[in-house]
Design goal:
Number of strands: 11
Structural class: alpha+beta
Oligomer: single chain
Distance between the termini: 28 Å
Radius of gyration: 19 Å
Number of domains: 2
Helix content: 10-25%
Order of helices and strands: EHEEHEEEHEEEHHEE
Length: 262
């Protein structure tokens, strides 16, 4: 058996999330179908991270096992023929059979796009969270800084996340300007691991501080209390993008070799 590692980009608008589910369209399900169109005995795909319904990705990492000794370039081009325009194979490489990207993930980076506009913009529809309220950018930046470090983020998760270990390390949390459109601000966060809907709860909390619905210090209060009620709303999925997953083993024979995985 041979192992293949994919870097996958997708528009999550019309998917019920990444993880396969019965009787509904998912990214993993689409990838399984495309791979098995080429090798009916290939394994199901193993993803490095789950994304919710409506969440997008630039750099999801996915692996599978196959009997076919096809070079990485061949897999990328062949799979493209069996995937909709909503999914793209950005890069491929060889890995050992049984390789699971979850075991090799070191850091993940997410982006969240916020559009400040009085009216809907069709070009940002399902791509950003639109708010017409004035935002206090300085307050949001200051609030984001308190996220950095190793903390117990048990308050920053959905009610369905029952994991016992809720300590996570965030190494960066900052707001960036978006040169293409000055109405848009980008929240970018890098950490070792994330809880379910953690990024969306963070984004919602920072925006609620920025528009005056929460007093400054909400992040610190949430961390100290572990209480979800100290935080803001869960931001909609539309503006969230899984940007990059850093792995400690990228495999070999990567194609295209001139591109990074980011």
């Amino acid at each position: 058996m041979f192992g293949v590692l994919l870097t996958v980009a997708y528009d999550g608008t019309r998917f019920a999330g990444y993880a396969r589910q019965p009787s509904t369209r998912t990214v993993a399900g689409e990838l399984d179908g495309a791979i098995r169109a080429l090798d009916p005995k290939a394994s199901l795909v193993r993803g490095a991270s789950r994304t919710d319904s409506g969440v997008h990705a630039h750099g999801q990492r996915v692996s599978f096992d196959t009997r076919l000794d096809i070079p990485p370039r061949g897999w990328a081009l062949a799979l493209a023929q069996h995937l909709s325009d909503e999914i793209s194979i950005v890069a491929t490489s060889r890995v050992h059979a049984g390789y699971d990207p979850r075991d090799h993930a070191m850091r993940k980076t997410y982006r969240y796009f916020i559009l400040h506009s009085e009216v809907r913009d069709p070009f940002w529809h399902h791509r950003a969270w639109r708010t017409s309220e004035r935002l206090n950018h300085d307050a949001m930046v200051a609030e984001a800084r308190t996220l950095v470090g190793t903390h117990d983020f048990r308050a920053f998760r959905s009610s369905t996340d029952s994991r016992v270990d809720t300590v996570r390390t965030l190494v960066r949390a900052e707001f960036l300007s978006y040169a293409v459109d000055d109405r848009v601000i980008v929240l970018e966060i890098t950490g070792d691991r994330f809880l379910h809907r953690m990024m969306r709860i963070i984004a919602g909390t920072l925006v609620d501080v920025g528009r005056g619905r929460l007093l400054p210090g909400a992040v610190e209060r949430g961390i100290q209390s572990g209480n979800r009620t100290n935080l803001g709303m869960t931001a909609p999925p539309d503006g969230l993008y899984l940007l990059h997953i850093e792995l400690n083993d990228e495999g070999s024979d990567k194609w295209p070799d001139h591109l990074s995985s980011r």
